[in-house]
Specification:
The protein is α/β, with parallel strands linked by helices. The protein folds into three domains: about 180 residues, Alpha-Beta Complex (Lambda Exonuclease, Chain A); about 60 residues, no CATH class; about 210 residues, Ribonuclease H-like superfamily/Ribonuclease H (Nucleotidyltransferase, domain 5, 2-Layer Sandwich), CATH 3.30.420.10. The protein has 20 helices and 16 strands. Strands 1, 11, 12, 13, 14 and 15 form a six-stranded mixed sheet that branches. Strands 2-3-4-5-6-7 form a six-stranded mixed sheet. It has a two-stranded antiparallel ribbon with strand order 8-9. Helix 13 packs across helix 20, helix 18 packs across helix 20 and helix 19 packs antiparallel against helix 20. The longest helix is centred in the C-terminal third of the chain and has 30 residues. Bound molecules: iron/sulfur cluster. Iron/sulfur cluster (SF4) binds next to helix 2, helix 9 and helix 10.
């Protein structure tokens, strides 16, 4: 059976689709889908006689239910071997009405292609809706003591652009998405063995993020100083065309020459490390003791589970902090909450964190600082205490994100895990939880059942994050000391 996700992969890159058939990576959703969106739609419209689709349903079941006048929700039908789900279909006042259902706040124009394909398959099965609308989650809904489904969902006829602004009626976008699905399906059934086909590099290989199959496709070009590892660069493809396949070969005017790119090129020419020592010294001089190394873990809920939360709000459930005094002594504090632990989290954090000194966080502004600002908005009684924390935060990622320090082994990446492995013998690989999404997955399990093992694994993971911060800061300090 083919699904829309297969067609999406194939139209992105045939080899990408081909690889995805050989090995299916584990999918770890970063959002907790804590309620079934179709159950909410059912409640919103007050439907009674419903066929609610289930995995593995025979497509004939939905067609039969449609003939019987039932409401179809997430019901599976097929054309050839291409299967789609009819999101929400019912008959009213002699008309057939279709709602596309989106478990998101601002369904984007890019969703229109899937909508067109759905209509294509429906039409092939003799179902042509008279009306088409959309229903999605209301981004501005704030939960009171109970969930109000009529406020939490909203109906619209327009898609949104990337800035979440209305961007045209659904009919206009459907028209723009017309394509020959029969021809596409045919092509996908006659794929050659693409393991032997050498693809040309294209923007899909590295735009937004590096394709997970990049190393397989271009094994010779994935060395640390490959021009493909040049960050924020659209000119790297031109460089490669000109034969400049290593950053060390760049002279300057072939690339955009941002600060980070400069650091990358200089490190490549030295075959190792670039350090802007004056800038690093200046950044380090802002640190004051005690230094608190801080890290949070949180999960995102599709539907607000607790009062004063909005759709897709996050709930911070854990922190780890290492505290270093001027003599280099290290102490450790940690917290792990359950269910609605927001106030307990705040109070525990405020009671344990030093009242003075720098608070060092990796990627502070987009993460920990933002989390505290969100909590302060919901619980203004703690705003002053929380403000004193986020205002003392310094971002440990900054020396890397600004091109002050670059090690060729970073290969265009700078995250805690990568830096820890470069600057020490420690690694997350030995931990039961080795990455953030796995921590969220384990935390979801912990919500269902008490488990000391999971708690221990979560403490170990979050504790490793703050210890990695200690290692990284001390490495940066050594880079300066080595020169004195
Ligand atoms: S690296 Fe590029 S060519 Fe290879 S599978 Fe990914 S997108 Fe396709």
């Amino acid at each position: 059976m083919l699904h829309e996700s297969d067609i999406k992969k194939y139209t992105r890159c045939d080899k990408y689709y081909w690889y995805s058939l050989q090995e299916k990576p584990e999918f770890l959703p970063f959002v907790t889908y804590n309620m079934d969106i179709y159950e909410l739609v059912k409640e919103y419209f007050g439907f009674e006689d419903v066929l609610m689709g289930k995995k593995g349903d025979d497509p004939e079941k939905a067609l039969q239910a449609y003939k019987e006048g039932k409401v179809l929700l997430n019901a599976r039908i097929a054309y050839r071997d291409f299967r789609i789900n009819i999101p929400c279909l019912f008959q009213k006042d002699g008309k057939t009405v279709l709602y596309f259902v989106y478990a998101q706040c601002f369904p984007k124009i890019s969703e229109a292609q899937k909508a067109y394909d759905t209509l294509y398959v429906m039409e092939k099965n003799g179902i042509v809706p008279d009306e088409i609308h959309m229903i999605h989650i209301n981004a501005y809904y704030e939960r009171k003591d109970s969930l109000d489904v009529h406020e939490c969902l909203m109906v619209t006829d327009e898609y949104y652009n990337d800035r979440n602004r209305p961007a045209g009626l659904i009919e206009e976008h459907l028209e723009a998405c017309k394509r020959d699905l029969d021809a596409l399906i045919e092509e996908m059934h006659h794929l050659p063995d693409l393991s032997l086909v050498q693809k040309k590099r294209n923007p899909n290989c590295t735009s937004h993020y590096k394709c997970e199959y990049f190393k397989k496709c271009f094994p010779g070009n994935d060395h640390d100083t490959s021009i493909m590892n040049l960050v924020q660069s659209s000119k790297k493809y031109d460089c490669e065309q000109m034969g400049i396949d290593d950053m060390a070969m760049v002279q300057g005017d072939e690339i955009e020459a941002t600060r980070v790119q400069y650091a990358q090129v200089m490190a490549a020419k030295k075959r190792g490390l670039f350090v802007d020592k004056a800038a690093l010294k200046s950044w380090l001089s802002q640190l004051t003791y005690p230094i608190t190394y801080l890290d949070f873990e949180w999960q995102t809920y599709m539907i607000p589970p607790y009062e004063k939360m909005k759709p897709y709000d996050v709930l911070v459930f854990q922190y780890s902090m290492h505290i270093e005094d001027e003599e280099g002594n290290l102490t450790h504090e940690q917290y792990l909450g359950k269910e609605d632990c927001r106030i307990e989290f705040i109070e525990d954090l405020i009671s344990k964190i030093p009242e003075k000194g720098t608070i060092l966080v990796f990627n502070a502004q987009g993460a920990e600082a933002l989390r505290l600002q969100q909590l302060a908005k919901v619980f203004p009684q703690y705003e002053e205490a929380l403000r004193s924390i986020w205002e003392r935060m310094m971002d440990l990622a900054l020396p890397f994100s600004c091109g002050i320090v670059y090690d060729t082994r970073m290969a265009g990446e700078y995250n805690l895990k990568k830096l820890l492995s470069l600057f020490s013998d420690l690694s997350y690989e030995s931990l039961e939880i080795s990455q953030g999404l796995l921590a969220v997955k384990k935390y979801r399990e912990l919500e269902e059942t008490e488990s000391d093992e999971i708690k221990e694994a979560l403490f170990e993971y979050c504790g490793m994050d703050t210890y990695a911060e200690v290692v990284i800061l001390h490495t940066l300090m050594k880079l300066i000391k080595a020169d004195q």
